Amino acid sequence: MSIKVIAFDADDTLWINEPYFRETEAEFCQLMESYLPQHTVVRELLQTEIKNLSLYGYGIKGFILSMIETALTISNKTIDINAVEKIIEYGKALLARPVEVLDGVPEVLAALKENYRLVVATKGDLLDQERKLRNSGVLHFFHHVEIMSDKQEADYRKLLKHLDIAPEQFLMIGNSLKSDVLPVLGIGGNAIHIPYHITWEHEHVDVHIDNPNFRQVEHISDVLPLLYAPSM
């Protein structure tokens, strides 16, 4: 069966995201360096974020709460209220960042929209992802938007059921092997990986993929020759 639906991850596939988190993380580490070395603060924050995923999910709001919790932990609850206020300000500034669409994205979406149903399939906070989509200038290209609490095989099966397509008719494009590629291949779908130069540590996987439904490209514009080649 030929591909009918192409889904795109949003953060670091359609627009810049992770560098902004890393900048905020650096500010937080500087704020806390009187308690612990910055590299140790990074490790403590990551552990807190991962622990809290089941409670807060993915996104900026959970990140803010995890920074506050980490500050309380490493300061043994002696952190000054002004520092907590500053952490909240970091989070609000992160939420207010302008959306910077990656090079080539509008052109690729415009080309693909002629022949495929396009979908956004992304994790993150609902309000924040909706804001970024509205401000991105690319929302009109998409037939459907799915903001997911997670990206496991069951989540993709649910999406395919909603779209009323078979796995063979579905292609996922994204920057995360863990979230955008492996679960889709696991249910029999197709996936294209576009690595981004910064990836959240929690999304790192060390795996070699040998699957005929998988491709990796350097730039989003590289997907066009693959999709319009007879073998795809």
TrEMBL record:
Pfam families assigned to the protein according to its UniProt record, in alphabetical order: Hydrolase (PF00702)
SUPFAM superfamilies in the cross-refs: HAD-like (SSF56784)
Keyword Hydrolase carried by entry: yes
Keyword annotations: Hydrolase
GO molecular function: hydrolase activity
Transmembrane segment boundaries: none
Keyword Hydrolase: yes
Domain of life: Bacteria
Cross-referenced CDD domains: HAD-like
InterPro entries listed in its UniProt record: HAD-like_sf, HAD_sf, PGP-like_dom2, S-2-haloacid_dehalogenase
UniProt cross-references to Gene3D superfamilies, sorted A to Z: HAD superfamily/HAD-like, Putative phosphatase, domain 2
Name of the protein in question: HAD family hydrolase
